[in-house]
Amino acid sequence: MGKPLDPPPGSNTLTVRDNRTGKSYQIPIVDNSISATDFKAIKASRVAGEREENETEKGLRLADRGFLNTAVLRSEITYIDGDAGVLRYRGYPIEQLAQHSNHLETAYLLIYGSLPTPSQYQTWRDEIMHHSVIHADAEQFFRSFRYDAHPMAILTSALAYLGSYYSEANPSLQGQNLFTKGDKPSLATMDKQIYRLIGKATTLAAMAYRVRQGREFVTPPTGLSYTGSFLYQMDHLGQENYVPNPVLEKALDVLFLLHADHEMNASSTSVLQVGSSLVDPFSAVAAGCASLYGPLHGGANEAVIRMLISIGKPENVPAFLEAVKKREKVLSGFGHRVYKTSDPRSFIVRKTADEVFKITGKDELLETAMALHDAAMKDDYFISRKLAPNVDFWSGLIYRAMGFPNDYFPVLFAVPRVVGWLAHWRQMMLQAGGVKIWRPRQIYVGAAKRDYVGLEDRIAVEGLKKTPSAIEHSGISKRTRLASFKGQTKAKL
Ligand code: CMC
């Protein structure tokens, strides 16, 4: 870096010329990417009047609000070609996995890199199902939530709470290199937390559901599939020989598989950001769950149904789309940071919806959803911005048809995504060169250096800058606020 020589054509470097200094720099290109730290060497002297806070002489920064074109790590897990609508887990097309695999087998693939052999699969499935049981004390934890608590608030808290049971898996207690050594004991400890988190995710989610229904909790059954056990824990009301409907169990399994990973999405990034401080995996996964809750991410499936209910009927679609174009309304379930065509998962979800509707009957919102989809796909506003349905557009309709409450939909996204979060977390813990804490930089645009002014002198110096409405948010009671305001004003007048 930094050699001002003309490289031969075809060399894998980028030549950058800094017109402030006239210097040229050659930056290596590796895997079609350049290293942001190479730009730190590009320095200039501050010009007269330039803010010292720009730190011009400390090297160039790369600005990327929202990580639009920043690769935060090298990954072998999931590949997306957003222009072609391609999604592959460890090289396998999502369509093939959805057709031939199941959620737990795919989970193994995502986490360990290859499809399991029959004996590996059996051990994996047994370990996960065996680790689905929760300590009896956890009941009190769930009962401490209000009856109307959002289930994502419960699930996020429950994941962090779960970690409190496993001090042996906590680097803060056992030593910070607990998971980064890559030796046999470290891998075994890591595997155990993976079994626990995947195994108990359905149990925690079912408990979050039942506590709001005022029902007793159900011990995870034996002999059922992952989604079969989940549905059983949610719906069993004491009937003898109760088994979930196999079509719905299979449909949920396909949806779980489709949601298991999606490369560097917001919640996986949160898991890695939090995990990069070497905190325990339960805390890191809880952070991912919190991130997924937002309506721009996993909360979109819930938002789609609220949107469809507000539209009401197909005739109202044109007016709704006009409001979206004026930015008065949001079209949830459309658009994606990476896909610039239809999300490949949305086709599989749409097909799965038809299977489910054969059992449950069609959802009354389906016609409105189809009218909205068709109108948006023909509209220039959406075509020119390459906005198409994402996975959340149809999934909510299936969940609704299956009888899940609207606010539970993000939980049905978070539970399978635990797999992806763990795959990324494991990969980062074991990456060559160890873990680097994720500590980005900022472009400081705040106040330049200024000197502290004592409280008494502040009004005289700055005037009555604080308006009563600004103080309104400060948490002091109105009576106190007026009294002190009057007092100060009087004293200064
Ligand atoms: N409805 C209307 N306009 C939209 C939409 C939408 N759903 N999404 C993007 N746009 C517009 C946006 O206003 C912008 O227009 P302009 O260039 O005129 O300012 C343009 O399209 C580019 O969008 P962006 O906001 O820069 O795109 P982004 O990559 O920052 O955001 C997104 C991606 C998914 C947050 C966004 O498309 C969105 O808010 N969609 C609705 C929420 C949603 O469905 N989220 C689920 C995502 S998929 C499941 C998951 O992985 O979580």
Automatic annotation (TrEMBL):
Pfam families given in the database record: Citrate_synt
InterPro entries in the record: Citrate_synth-like_lrg_a-sub (IPR016142), Citrate_synth-like_sm_a-sub (IPR016143), Citrate_synthase (IPR002020), Citrate_synthase_AS (IPR019810), Citrate_synthase_bac-typ (IPR024176), Citrate_synthase_sf (IPR036969)
Pathway the protein takes part in: Carbohydrate metabolism
Residues of the active site: H336, D392
Key words, A-Z: Transferase, Tricarboxylic acid cycle
Keyword Transferase: yes
Biological process, per Gene Ontology: monocarboxylic acid metabolic process; tricarboxylic acid cycle
Single Gene Ontology MF annotation: acyltransferase activity, acyl groups converted into alkyl on transfer
Keyword Methyltransferase listed: no
Family: Belongs to the citrate synthase family.
Protein name as annotated: Citrate synthase
Annotated organism of origin: Favolaschia claudopus
